[in-house]
Design goal:
239 residues; alpha+beta; seven-stranded antiparallel sheet; 3 helices; 7 strands; 28% helix
Length: 239
C-alpha cells in the first residue's frame, strides 16, 4: 500500500502541476541486507566524492607517510596515494544491530598505489634495499571492512551512526609492481630460489595489508565526517 499510495500522490503532482511535499522515505530495517546494500550502493559514490569544505574526497586518498618497520625490514612510503575508489561498487552490507556489528564489502576493478619509497632490510631472508618511485596496480580488488559502529541523536532528534572499530580483509586477482632503484642481494642462499619478480611479489604480499589498512583508516575518517552531516534516514532507505 505504501508504494501505491505515494505513486498516486506523485502522479497527481505531475499531472496537475501542484506543489507537493517530498515523499517520505521508507527506512531499511537492520536485518534487511538487500535494502542496506542497495541504499549504501546508491550513496557510496557521493561519500567518495566528498563534500567541499566539509568532507575530503576519498579518490584519490593521500597519506604523507606510511612507516612499515618490522624487526627485519625498514620500509617508508612518502606521499602515498591510492587511486580508484570512485570506480568501486558496494557488494554487500550486513548489520547485526544487537551487537552493533557490520560487514561492508566493496569491489574495485582497478586500484593503484603510487609513492616514493625507501627500503632496507630482509624479506624471507633476502636482503633488499633501495629508494625511488613505486607503483602497485591491482585488478579485481575486494575490500571487506568488518567492525563496530556507534549511534547517537543530533539536536533535531535524527539518528546518526559512526564507525568505532574495524579491521580489513583483502583479496585480489592480479597485481603488477614497478619499483625504480630497488635491489636484492644475490649472496643470500634464499635469493637463488626466485626471480626479481618473485622477490617483488614477496615484498608486495608483506606490505599489502598494512598499507591498505592505513588507507582505509583515512577512508573511515572521511566516512565518519560524512555520517556526522547525513543522518541514517537519508542513507538507509528503500531505493
Amino acid at each position: 500500500m505504501f508504494s501505491v499510495k505515494y505513486l498516486v500522490i506523485f502522479l497527481a503532482c505531475v499531472n496537475f502541476n501542484v506543489l507537493c511535499l517530498s515523499v517520505p522515505k521508507k527506512p531499511c530495517s537492520y536485518d534487511d541486507e538487500e535494502c542496506l546494500t542497495k541504499s549504501t550502493r546508491a550513496i557510496y559514490h557521493k561519500i567518495v566524492a566528498g563534500r567541499p569544505g566539509e568532507v575530503e574526497a576519498s579518490d584519490p586518498l593521500r597519506l604523507d607517510l606510511i612507516n612499515l618497520d618490522t624487526p627485519e625490514l625498514k620500509h617508508k612510503m612518502v606521499k602515498a596515494t591510492l587511486f580508484g575508489l570512485q570506480k568501486c561498487d558496494v557488494e554487500d552490507v550486513l548489520v547485526n544491530a544487537k551487537e552493533a556489528f557490520f560487514n561492508y564489502q566493496i569491489a574495485c576493478p582497478d586500484l593503484r598505489i603510487e609513492s616514493t619509497y625507501e627500503i632496507d632490510g630482509k624479506i624471507d631472508g633476502v636482503t633488499v634495499n633501495g629508494a625511488g618511485a613505486s607503483v602497485i596496480s591491482y585488478k579485481n580488488y575486494e575490500i571487506l571492512l568488518k567492525g563496530y559502529y556507534g549511534k547517537y541523536l543530533d539536536e533535531s532528534g535524527d539518528l546518526h551512526t559512526n564507525i568505532t572499530k574495524f579491521n580489513v580483509v583483502l583479496s585480489t586477482e592480479e597485481v603488477t609492481r614497478e619499483y625504480s632503484g630497488i635491489s636484492f642481494s644475490d649472496k643470500d642462499e634464499e635469493a637463488e630460489a626466485s626471480t626479481v619478480e618473485g622477490k617483488l611479489a614477496k615484498l608486495e604480499e608483506e606490505i599489502r595489508h598494512p598499507v591498505m589498512n592505513r588507507f582505509m583508516e583515512k577512508y573511515i575518517q572521511n566516512l565518519n565526517k560524512f555520517l556526522v552531516i547525513v543522518p541514517v534516514k537519508d542513507i538507509h532507505y528503500h531505493v
